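As described in the Methods, two query proteins were run sequentially through the folding procedure within a single session, without resetting any intermediate state between them. The first query and its resulting structure tokens are shown here.
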Amino acid sequence: MKKNIAVIRGDCSSPEIVAQAIRVLDKIAEKHGHTFAYTEVDMGGAAIDKYGDPLPGHELEKCLASDSVLLGAIGGPKWEGLPGDKRPEKGLLRLRSGMGLYANNRPAKIWPQLADASPLKPEIVAKGIDFIVVRELIGGVYFGEHKTMELENGEKQAVDTMPYAEHEIERIGRIGFETAMKRRKKLCCVDKANVLDTSRLWRAVMHRLQAEYPEVEYSEMFVDNCAMQICKNPSQFDVIVTENMFGDILSDEASEITGSIGMVPSSSLGAGTCGLYEPIHGSAPDIAGQDMVNPIACILSAAMMLRYSFDMAKEADEIEAAVNAVLDKGLRTADMMSEGCTRVGCAAMGSAIIAEL
């Protein structure tokens, strides 16, 4: 099978992890007779330096013409002082919107070898952590109107709007229910319906969808309570579906309880099979060029791409099994190092995973 993958190497430490993910993909291609062609795409800080724009139209077109997109991470101190519409993160928002990626799926799963690294109490971790946050990605406050005005008294006032239409809620809600059907058939809708009209509309739409999925155990929870419950009793969750900003915050929190943010992949999908796959961590500018960054989240993101966009479940299973075998052998990058383990760098971790394949 031949696939064209758009590759966004990103900023700071990001090119190091993307390089290892591509090595793993090349090994899978060699083993199974596939051909993966790579199209280089500039986005974020790299695109700002080259074009003065975090995502020029011609770079977005490369992504739209691909079978899927693999992204490392963008941003860094170099570009922090730029205006909002010129910051690296703006390129990511444009990419998601341009590709029509309305569903971000981020698993929160504890690898047993890293259980001691979780900040939660051992008795909480022992109950298990294995849930997924399904986050609406191209609506809500991040894509609403943003303006700052001056009041009559000379004081400035800023306003951000959080718009949601029924069809936007229904399509992400349906993905939540479908995801639950493939897992343990539990779905929790997280909102702030005691305050927000958008949340009350979310509940109305979710109630309509609930009737189509009678096998799914459906519940609702306010976002502040959910943030507490993720730390107090994460084993209660299977699938969480929520709007953009709440999902951004909760999925970051969920990643931290799994032991290392360097282990968490993510996928962003729309109506088709062309998706965006990226680790959830940032570009780690403080260790750029030092061969210290953990490549596993990026490698697991590549595995998700094989599974969800290319229908290569066997190949994805092999990558995940290779990661598990390497962890069993006690190999660790600096972010997840513990007593009795062997510390390795980014490239060496990539090589160890390839050796297992």
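Immediately afterward, the second query was submitted; its sequence and tokens are:
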Amino acid sequence: MSESDRPAVLLLRERFGSRPFRVSEAVQAGIARTTLHRLRQDGALAAPGRGVLQLPEGGVGLLSGLAVVSARVPCGTICLGSALAHWDLSDEIPAQVHIAVPRGAHRPTIEQPPTRVHVFAPETFGLDRQQARSDADEPFWIYSAERSVVDAIRMSRWVGRDLALHALRRYMTRGGSSPARLAELARELGGAARLQPALEALLS
């Protein structure tokens, strides 16, 4: 890396730290595309995904795939199997990153890391959407543990009924679990008919 590029790296480190960032974000921060290209060629920037860059000293966390996909899909939310794994509600490591986008939004195709994009209803898309951070302190958007359980139950055809019931069981055995919140979310999301029998079976 040349001395002339050092200020750009310092700016990127100050603005983004260890998290992945989109090329467009770096350009908005004042870094020229030609500079980004040169830094990548020199090894001063890594490219964990298409259109996504990262300072290599940030390391690659266990959950970096979620952050990389979130950087590629800023309007998206990590969901279903990926969200269950993040909240330790599943022992299964998904082969793909599952991310939801609201109906009508751009539905990207992402090959690295392998990603499956789901389309959710726009009127409930933001329900229990929250920001989390990977073990490398990279931010990403994800549904809460409660919504992840409800989504798994009501969309069991996508995650598998056994996995969905296991997630519900594990959630309910934790301290601070709230069946009332699950029921409330299920009503808002249209999944009450599926959740109620599963809850009753666990609580009986």
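Residues 1 and 11 are 15 Å apart (CA to CA). We note this only descriptively and draw no conclusion about the first query from it.
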